[in-house]
Design a protein that fits this description.
Elements lengths: L16 H6 L9 H23 L3 H18 L4 H10 L1 H6 L5 H16 L1 H33 L9 H26 L3
Helix pairs in contact: 2-7, 2-8, 3-4, 3-6, 3-8, 4-8, 6-7, 7-8
């Protein structure tokens, strides 16, 4: 048949050569439970991102970001509130902060920053930094997720990919709040 169109030298030499080449290749196994968890996390992320993009309320953010950061730090264990305050405020301001009243201290710092910048500019800064940090952390989270997917065949139930993915997503959300708070307090508009 190839000779008819002047393609005799391109004619296949054996029966179905495309089959003989692909016999050694086996498609990668897809863990559907793993993909479902990623899809759930993706839907939560995009819901949160659309909320920030379309219906951002700066006054609510000024109250909720410090509360969320302190709650997340407290949940992660002893000493995390102090570490979080140090990371967000810097060494000098951290010394003046009381870890037992961290939420109020952060709210006061954000209120002082908003008073210095103006409410509209602070709202836009919070909105833009929230979106930027969410995108950065989601990309980093997907990288960590793919690493777990490649290397996640373990026998210990607490280290199974589902448990690890839930902890990674919680950590991703904590870092998002922490970095947003840090940018809101320290970045120049």
């Amino acid at each position: 048949m190839g000779a008819i169109f002047g393609l005799g030298h391109y004619a296949p030499r054996g029966r179905r050569p495309w089959l003989s080449r692909s016999r050694g290749a086996v498609p990668a196994r897809v863990d559907l439970a793993f993909e479902r968890i990623i899809d759930e996390q993706r839907s939560v992320f995009y819901r949160d991102r659309h909320e920030v993009r379309d219906r951002f309320d700066g006054r609510l953010a000024l109250r909720s970001i410090p509360a969320a950061a302190v709650a997340a730090w407290s949940a992660w264990g002893a000493g995390e509130v102090e570490r979080g305050l140090h990371d967000v405020l810097g060494a000098e301001a951290y010394r003046a902060a009381d870890p037992n009243d961290a939420e109020r201290f952060l709210m006061d710092a954000l209120a002082a920053r908003a008073a210095g910048m103006g409410d509209d500019q602070m709202n836009e800064l919070l909105r833009q930094t929230s979106l930027l940090v969410m995108d950065e952390q989601w990309a980093a989270h997907l990288g960590r997720v793919r690493f777990v997917q490649r290397h996640g065949n373990v026998t210990d139930e607490s280290l199974r990919p589902a448990a690890v993915l839930e902890r990674l997503f919680a950590w991703c959300r904590l870092v998002t709040v922490e970095h947003t708070l840090g940018y809101a307090l320290n970045v120049e508009p």
